[in-house]
Amino acid sequence: MENIVIPARRPMTRRGALVLGTAALAAPAVARAQTKFTYKFANNVPLTHPLNIRAKAMAEAVAKDTNGALQIKIFPNNQLGGDTDMLSQLRAGGIQFFTLSGLILSTLVPAASINGIGFAFPDYATVWKSMDGPLGAYIRGEIAKSGLVAMDKIWDNGFRQTTSATKPIKTPQDLVGFKIRVPPSPLWTSMFKALGAAPTSINFAEVYSALQTHLVDGQENPLAIISVAKLYEVQKYCALTNHMWDGFWFLANGAAWKKLPKEMQAVFTKHVDEAALLERGDVEKLNAGLQSDLAAKGMVFNTVDAAPFRNKLRSAGFYAEWHKKYGDAAWKLLEKSVGSLG
Ligand code: X2X
Q1: For residue 222, how far is its CA from the centre of ligand 1 (angstroms)?
Q2: 263 class by beta-carbon count within 10 Å (0-12 exposed, 13-18 middle, 19+ buried)
Q3: 83-93: per-residue pLDDT in tens?
Q4: What is the distance in A from the centroid of ligand 1 to the CA of 207?
Q5: CATH topology for 35-338?
Q6: Distances from the Cα of 165 to the Cαs of 59, 182, 235, 300, 339, in angstroms?
């Protein structure tokens, strides 16, 4: 895209940039030598997850529209390490792009776990309204302070469900003393402790084997993940707890991002945010249809009444504690979307 950079002495107006951006998209193949960038995009989900399917198409579109100048190489399925390790590599610049749950990112950016507050989001409409609105903007602002760049549209992981090898989880009482894997994040540990469970932090890269060897008896994830990572092979019961909504921020290393010419950034953000919206549709559809699929593979499903779980969190002081941690401003943004959390 350097072929369309305006000489520095002619200031680029916003309008000019937009017009040129459009022209460049229409006719990208202007012959002129340009700097080439090959950036790594790492993530923790199998190739069959919609995140990787949409990311692959996105990378192809970016390569095409930059006339081959920005090549994105995808490393799926924890090929480059577990989440905490990939986050270090992203910060050090060894990888340039990475999708990470906001809850895990909170080890670096505390505000980024706020959407995971237990039983906060009632449905997808509320999720997208807040994450594409003021709450998401607030979180992205906090991420920017850490030196990382978060793209505008968060990708969907989904509403999380609770699986078990030993017994169905129907009431909060069933969670008492239950050995459950949670992703590495203070919010997750705090929430399952408040519910009386015995949570262990384990990166997703090790979850299948942790379940297989009975290091833990359960875990919690959206149905799409339970399906593509074949967790149904090592779990029997699935409680539709919908206890939190979780999404993946599409993150860039700050220095690597700044190296890209503005027009190249514009091509990338256009395609990555389009891909995010498509991925959201895929995941929502998948999660809605997977129950019968997983039941056919042997999983036994039950629904739960969320109220007693919520009450237990409330009486354990979970909401009050996290309200204090995030601060009034952030908490108000959350409650403005989802109502009072008490
Ligand atoms: O680690 C998990 O459970 C996963 C795949 O859902 C996340 O990335 C948070």
Answers
A1: 9
A2: buried
A3: 999 999 999 99
A4: 9
A5: D-Maltodextrin-Binding Protein; domain 2 (3.40.190)
A6: 38, 15, 4, 10, 35
